[in-house]
Design brief:
The protein folds into 2 domains: 35 residues, no CATH class; 144 residues. The protein has 6 helices and 3 strands. The protein has a 3-stranded antiparallel β-sheet with strand order 1-2-3, with no helix packed on it. The chain starts with a strand and ends with a helix.
Length: 203
């Protein structure tokens, strides 16, 4: 751990060990819990820096790119079943999308809980803390409901459609629930991108 001692008004200052190049001085009387709840004005960058050139961590960048990649896959999957009547390919793509969503969620949870403190990375935003927290709260509403809907739609489709998949009595209900899940996924991506921009891009 790098440490800096001074006898001036600043008192004793230490620097936390991090993988990022940026450092933030912390007062020795400030506990880790206090730092997490009330990040200092100049924030340290814990964890691994992302690849998009923002303040975000690697996990956050992976989540953002993963969400943006899911949308064209969803559009292609709908095209396959609606215009080409290729139900088998539609099923495979939907299972792939479900797997990607699960990977995105796991990546987010691992990054936030075990690797990086996103709050310290977001503190430089002019919208911290109220605006950032509001954007995250709205995003989580759509993200959680999307996960629940997607699991429900996929589980019902696997359980009720024949193998190989063909149109059946479950079709109308499947189309309705799939539309709701698709709209929810788009809103999840939009609100997630807005949260990322607000928290890690704006200065």
């Amino acid at each position: 751990m790098a440490a800096n001692r001074s006898l001036g008004k600043g008192g004793y200052t230490c620097f936390l060990p991090v993988q990022s190049k940026e450092k933030i001085p912390m007062n020795r009387f400030q506990s880790a819990d206090d730092t997490a709840d009330n990040p200092p004005a100049t924030a340290i960058m814990p964890g691994i820096d992302g690849f998009l050139g923002t303040r975000a961590s690697l996990g956050m960048d992976v989540v953002l790119v993963g969400l943006l990649l899911v949308l064209p896959l969803l559009a292609w999957s709908i095209h396959l079943v609606r215009n080409r009547r290729n139900f088998a390919a539609h099923k495979r793509l939907q299972l792939l999308i479900a797997g990607l969503l699960l990977a995105v969620i796991l990546s987010f949870e691992i990054d936030v809980r075990l690797v990086s403190d996103w709050k310290l990375r977001a503190v430089a935003s002019p919208w911290w803390p109220a605006g950032v927290w509001l954007a995250l709260s709205v995003h989580l509403v759509f993200a959680i409901s999307t996960f629940v809907l997607w699991v429900w739609v996929v589980w019902e489709a696997v359980a009720r459609f024949p193998v190989p998949p063909q149109p059946g009595t479950h079709g109308p209900r499947h189309r309705l629930m799939a539309r709701l899940a698709g709209i929810d996924l788009v809103l999840t991506t939009v609100t997630g991108t807005f949260f990322y921009w607000l928290a890690f891009v704006l200065k």
